[in-house]
Specification:
The chain has helices at 15-22, 26-33, 41-54, 60-66, 83-98, 116-124, 142-153, 177-192, 209-225, 241-254, 269-277, 293-300, 312-327, 334-337, and strands spanning 71-78, 104-111, 133-136, 157-160, 197-203, 229-231, 235-236, 258-263, 285-289, 306-309, 342-344. It is α/β, with parallel strands linked by helices. The protein is elongated.
């Protein structure tokens, strides 16, 4: 097949150039690009070869605007949450403005993260005519996994958000939680220094995959690099401040040799408030996750030695771009969507 190069090499190839290169009409090119019927496989192959040879990149924004195509993305977030979740919601509201010119509508739907059956029912009730895609922040359970599969079968894009699902490792938005836990462990161990003793670990729920992965990463570095330290079993608060107070107080009483505390949960306000009320020795090193007004204030007051964080705005914008990529069957730029692990100290707030 003879390849035709656009007359001005600085211009991006158009569908007209593509039609000439493939020896077909522009209407046929349009059918192939939009995956419509009425084109033989041989013709599809010719058009795809022309796409490759010309380096054709479709202007999806212009195509969607011409067709008045719109996207409605739901962010299904836990109903119980605190400052980190509030930051996520605020960034979703910002994204609504940022992507409005692209006909993208972003909405928040709160779910009961402790009730997998209600999450499954919520996902099962979504209709493709009303919802284009869902970014889901939920613990992984068999019920949720099945609901996600059925959601995709109905043609609705699905994306794990902040907390991953094992069935969708290649398509999710969040930091590498194992690496985040390992980073917290290294920072905690270095801050403790040569002292020996036990380390308290506080989580909301060990049913969430992000907590499991953070704990695995934390223990791996602790066992490898700090043999004088002994991490205790994870305390689960389930987001309940009264329960947090009970389990933390009992842990402190039963382990007088605690030298470090790792707040593994994304919402650190309640555990830090409890530790402050219990007047925990300031020499005990504390590391937490996510930059919020609470953790920032704790860093400034030297109640925390460090915070391992991920940028909420980047999380939301990446989720929107990835959902659009799934809907449009188009890859996103991997380097742009990689969520970095940030380390915050009182010196770089």
């Amino acid at each position: 097949m003879k390849t035709l190069i656009p007359s001005n090499p600085q211009l991006r190839p158009t569908t007209k150039d593509l039609a000439k290169a493939a020896g077909v009409s522009r209407a046929t090119v349009d059918r192939v690009l939009n995956g419509r019927d009425g084109v033989t496989q041989k013709t599809v192959d010719r058009v795809n070869l022309a796409i490759k040879e010309l380096g054709f990149v479709r202007n999806l924004q212009a195509a969607n605007l011409a067709k008045s195509k719109s996207y409605r993305f739901l962010f299904a977030l836990p109903s119980s949450g605190d400052q980190f979740l509030q930051q996520i919601v605020a960034r979703i509201e910002e994204a609504q403005e940022i992507f409005s010119a692209d006909h993208v509508l972003c909405e928040v739907q709160h779910i009961d993260e402790n009730d997998p059956h209600s999450i499954s029912a919520f996902l099962g009730a979504l209709d493709k005519s009303e919802v284009t895609g869902v970014a889901l922040m939920s613990p992984e359970t068999p019920q949720v996994r099945d609901a996600i599969i059925r959601l995709q079968e109905r043609g609705i894009a699905a994306l794990p958000f902040v907390s991953n699902q094992s069935m969708m490792t290649d398509h999710w938005v969040g930091i590498d939680n194992r690496a985040a836990g390992a980073t917290a462990s290294l920072l905690l161990g270095q801050c403790i220094g040569q002292r020996s003793g036990t380390v308290m670990v506080i989580a909301e729920s060990m049913q969430s995959r992000d907590s499991l992965e953070r704990r695995l990463g934390f223990d791996a570095i602790m066992n490898e690099s700090f043999p004088q330290l002994r991490p205790l079993p994870s305390l689960e608060t389930y987001g309940n401040e009264a329960r947090a107070r009970d389990v933390i107080a009992a842990n402190l009483e039963n382990n007088p040799d605690i030298v470090g505390i790792y707040v593994m949960a994304s919402e650190a306000r309640a555990p830090l408030s409890v530790l402050r009320d219990l007047q925990v020795d300031r020499s005990i090193v504390k590391i937490a996750h996510e930059m919020t007004p609470c953790t920032e204030a704790a860093l400034r007051a030297q109640e925390l030695s460090g915070v391992i964080a991920q940028n909420p705005g980047h999380l939301v914008r990446s989720a929107v771009r990835r959902l659009r990529g799934i809907v449009d069957n188009r890859d996103t730029l991997g380097s742009q969507e990689s969520i970095r692990i940030e380390i915050h100290l009182r010196t770089n707030i």
